[in-house]
């Protein structure tokens, strides 16, 4: 892959890496008030990038990356959600300028799981169309402040998770049926907000590119039985196609729409939405991929109530793939070829350029002296990079690769026990220490990989 035309990058997200809780005018986000298990780190300090910004950018420069995919913290940009926060805008101006000074293209995502808690309290967050208006207002502020220098933008990160994770979006309805209806309404409002945001983007950042960041779902049937094949097709529609079809085509898959209508979960849509949905297409698709999924048909009377909300239907349930190697944190198994399979399918369906925005291996890394020997991560990343090279060689328009993550960051439910970083952050869940940065073996390997381009 030619270095000039391919971005080698790395990724983080604001609430998982930034910290700086209550500093610089930052308001209260859903991620600040959500309950985490006892003994697990929350996001108030995270990896403390708020106080290590220059150091982190220099680590990126030394690494040799040409793309930094991060996210804006909505409540740092907007404070309480309603008013612009100059100190937060200054912080991101500093980050953007530091990246550019060091030859790194900034690539922010507007919405990566956190949102103003005030919106949940005032109008139930994404359940209301008011949230659509507020998101577009926030996005426009970002475009006007940063669009002169920032040319690649992500809209919504992993809408599948963003709409289903109640601790991130405030959907605390206790009635199960109503909760599901709320989930699909919230997801629709996110899609509408994305489309209206793209419309505004075209007017302000005329030379920029923008697209969704999807949680790519590579779904295998557990057996070749027709009902398992159909279960896999249904899962693909529910876990991926419903979001990307809306992002690209402005409509849902027919089977998905029929199911929601039959259940009484189909979202409320206003007539004037149709034109906005159809006329504002993205420029690319961001691909988050860690592993594939195996599903099967649900058997009569089988309990799937403990599965995530998006699995709670009669159409499919989790199966088991015996052909993949599983680890403590990668319980579905490691499947590099799934990256090739999934991205090939996405291109054939949508015909848009793609960039890998997240791909990484979770492990409970151990610091020994001043070294973290993470050969397992090197092996994982190498196998997945080879699949990107395969795609490029075959003519698929893949323009970048960003491992998750640049440095260790706070995991949503496992804190710092579950680490993904190329750089070790010296803290534990219960002892913040000084968050010292220590490059792992994978950092030096990736640096050489970028330099060699082989």
From TrEMBL:
<dbReference type="InterPro" id="IPR001360">
    <property type="entry name" value="Glyco_hydro_1"/>
</dbReference>
<comment type="similarity">
    <text>Belongs to the glycosyl hydrolase 1 family.</text>
</comment>
<dbReference type="InterPro" id="IPR033132">
    <property type="entry name" value="GH_1_N_CS"/>
</dbReference>
<feature type="active site" description="Nucleophile">
    <location>
        <position position="358"/>
    </location>
</feature>
<keyword id="KW-0326">Glycosidase</keyword>
<protein>
    <submittedName>
        <fullName>Glycoside hydrolase family 1 protein</fullName>
    </submittedName>
</protein>
<keyword id="KW-0378">Hydrolase</keyword>
<dbReference type="Pfam" id="PF00232">
    <property type="entry name" value="Glyco_hydro_1"/>
</dbReference>
<dbReference type="InterPro" id="IPR018120">
    <property type="entry name" value="Glyco_hydro_1_AS"/>
</dbReference>
<dbReference type="GO" id="GO:0016787">
    <property type="term" value="F:hydrolase activity"/>
</dbReference>
<dbReference type="InterPro" id="IPR017853">
    <property type="entry name" value="GH"/>
</dbReference>
């Amino acid at each position: 892959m030619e270095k000039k035309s391919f971005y080698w990058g790395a990724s983080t997200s604001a609430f998982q890496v930034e910290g700086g809780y209550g500093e610089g005018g930052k308001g209260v986000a859903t991620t600040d008030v959500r309950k985490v298990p006892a003994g697990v780190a929350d996001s108030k300090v995270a990896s403390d990038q708020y106080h290590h910004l220059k150091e982190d950018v220099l680590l990126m420069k030394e690494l040799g990356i040409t793309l930094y995919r991060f996210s804006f913290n909505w409540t740092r940009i907007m404070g309480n959600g309603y008013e612009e926060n100059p100190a937060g805008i200054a912080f991101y101006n500093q980050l953007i300028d530091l990246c550019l000074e060091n030859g790194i293209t900034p690539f922010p995502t507007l919405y990566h799981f956190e949102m103003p808690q005030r919106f949940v309290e005032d109008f139930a967050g994404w359940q209301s169309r008011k949230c659509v208006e507020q998101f577009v207002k926030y996005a426009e502020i970002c475009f006007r402040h940063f669009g002169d220098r920032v040319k690649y933008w992500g809209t919504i990160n992993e809408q599948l998770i963003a709409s289903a994770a109640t601790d991130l979006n405030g959907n605390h309805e206790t009635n199960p049926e109503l909760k599901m209806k709320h989930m699909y309404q919230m997801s629709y409002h996110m899609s509408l907000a994305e489309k209206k945001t793209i419309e505004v983007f075209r007017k302000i950042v005329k030379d920029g590119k923008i697209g969704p960041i999807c949680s790519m779902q590579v779904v295998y049937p557990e057996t070749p039985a027709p009902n398992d094949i159909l279960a896999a097709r249904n899962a693909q529609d529910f876990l991926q196609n419903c979001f990307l079809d809306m992002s690209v085509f402005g409509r849902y898959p027919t089977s998905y729409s029929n199911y929601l209508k039959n259940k009484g979960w189909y979202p409320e849509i206003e007539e004037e939405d149709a034109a906005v949905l159809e006329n504002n297409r993205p420029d690319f698709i961001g691909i988050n991929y860690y592993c594939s999924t195996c599903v099967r048909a649900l058997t009569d009377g089988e309990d799937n109530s403990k599965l995530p909300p998006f699995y709670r239907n009669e159409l499919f349930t989790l199966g088991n793939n015996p052909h993949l190697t599983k680890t403590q944190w990668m319980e579905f198994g490691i499947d590099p070829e799934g990256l090739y399979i999934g991205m090939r399918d996405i291109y054939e369906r949508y015909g848009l350029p793609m960039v890998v925005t997240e791909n990484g291996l979770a492990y409970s890394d151990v610091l020994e002296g001043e070294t973290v020997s993470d050969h397992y991560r090197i092996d994982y990343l190498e196998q997945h990079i080879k699949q990107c090279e395969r795609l490029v060689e075959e003519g698929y328009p893949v323009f970048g690769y960003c491992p998750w993550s640049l440095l260790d960051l706070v995991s949503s439910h496992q804190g710092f026990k579950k680490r993904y970083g190329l750089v070790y952050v010296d803290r534990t869940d219960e002892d913040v220490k000084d968050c010292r940065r220590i490059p792992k073996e994978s950092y030096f390997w990736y640096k050489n990989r970028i330099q060699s381009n082989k």
